[in-house]
Amino acid sequence: MAAIGFIGLGAMGRHMAASLQRAGHKLSVHDLNRDAAKEHVAAGARWADSAAGAAEGAEILFTSLPGPPDVEAIAGVLHEVLRPDVAWFDLTTNSPEVVRALHAKLAKRGVHLLDAPVSGGPRGAQTGKLALWVGGEQSIYERNLPLLQAIGDQPLYVGPIGAGTIAKLVHNCTSFALQAVLAEVMTLGVKAGVDPLALFKAVRQGATGRARTFDRLPDFYFAGKFDPPSFALALAHKDMKLALDLARKNGVPLRMGETAFAELEEGMRRGWGGRDCRAAMTLQEERAGVTVRVPAEKLKGALD
Question: Which residues contact 213 (CB under 8 A, 6 or more apart)?
Answer without folding.
Answer: 174, 178
